Amino acid sequence: xxxxxxxxxxxxxxxxxxxIMELAAEFENEPNQNLLNGKIxxxxxxxxxxRTRISFETAITRLGGRIVGFTDSSSSSVSKxxxxxxxxxxxxxxxxxxxxxxxxxxxxxxxxxIADVPVINAGDGANQHPTQTLLDMYSIMKTQGRLDNIxxxxxxxxxxxxxxxxxxxALSVFENPIFNFIAPPELAMPIExxxxxxxxxxxxxxxxxxxxxISEADIIYMTRVQKERFTDPMEYExxxxxxxxxxxxxxxxxxxxxxxxPLPRVNEIHTDVDANPKxxxxxxxxxxxxxxxxxxxHIIGLK
Amino acid sequence: MDKAxxxxxxxxxxxxxxxxxxxxFDVINILxxxxxxDMITFGTNLDSKRLGLKxxxxxxxxxxxxxxxxxxxxxxxxxxxxxxxxxxxxxxRVVEIPSEITNIVKxxxxxxxxxxxxxxxxxxxxxxxxxxxxxxxxxxxxxxKQVVIR
Lengths: 303, 150
Known about the structure:
The complex is a heterodimer of chains A (303) and B (150).
Chain A: H1 14-29, E1 40-45, H2 50-62, E2 66-70, H3 84-94, E3 97-102, H4 107-114, E4 119-124, H5 130-144, E5 151-155, H6 162-171, E6 178-182, H7 191-200, E7 203-207, E8 219-222, H8 233-239, E9 258-260, H9 281-300
Parallel strand pairs in A: 1-2, 1-3, 3-4, 5-6, 5-8, 6-7, 8-9
Chain B: E1 13-20, H1 24-30, E2 40-48, E3 52-60, H2 66-70, E4 80-85, E5 88-94, E6 100-102, E7 105-106, E8 122-128, E9 131-135, E10 141-143, E11 148-149
Antiparallel strand pairs in B: 1-3, 1-4, 2-3, 4-5, 6-8, 7-11, 8-9, 9-10
């Protein structure tokens, strides 16, 4: 059974995750497949997003589909005051699928209730960005050969970072994950996610800084520590340089370890890491295209 | 003085007792009693050992269904329902928090879509004590202290 939408990462089952991994590998092998021939997909981007939009649009084009839509709300009827409800009602009459990014949380779930065509959430505010999580999982699968028994370090803004929350939930359905959290106390992993892990009996460890313990990592997942998240600018100044990953810190890490980052990065991964074969973030972004081809095909039921 | 006599008795209907005094009008709104055609009497700021000040509502000829009355559980968790027939209490009930809350509570998250468009709010009750409601749209938790009636 094919899920109709992808709004939240928890809408997919473990079988869906594994099927996406399989399909993404197929698309990596042969990216151009004419499965969406004659189909039209709307990409509604109410706020700009370079990587996500381009990777979705490339994925749709490689599948032979055509695209209508807008790249920011100033060029849509939103600027005339149209509600999301009316825009979605109208657009869903025209197209076969909707990909939407919107700054308000819950907007994608709402759109999926209005539209009679499938909706893929390409980010709803600070809430969910499930296609990012699936491409993160595909990157882990590809580099580690498995999604079970992964020791993952999540670093940076663990309080507001939607990608780390979704990844935590997704990896929790696999065997024996170990989570290590590295964050300043102000941006620590919220209690509700720790409670979620406790209930499932999954191990996690919290750290305030990088230590030698990263030698145990299979994956180091970096995120941006954003200045605007701090109420006290002094607090930001104190922590802003604590979470920078540099090449000389990677010496004792596993040879198979990979560094992931949802991008864009600012300074949290020093550019001297880029040449290290353990740096995987640019390939990770490429994996996004294959993963999105897989997600679209899975939802429309083409594969 | 017998409190029951502070609001005159009804022959048939329902008495909702032990409502926190400050929530009386929220209860009236949620139960849509403002559009009810039957006789309604209420008293408020009555002394209560448990609540300090309480309110009581008596609705003649109305008998509430379970789900209908559970809607008030969020704001009047200690409310008691007495079903009256021929001036006698024939049934006593307490309210229970339902597992899903529809269109009563406002999501606390200012960035939630339900606070920007005209949408019926829906929450899954994650915990009843203390109350924790997960918005089915933005997925954030509205806690007991944050509960605001729409």
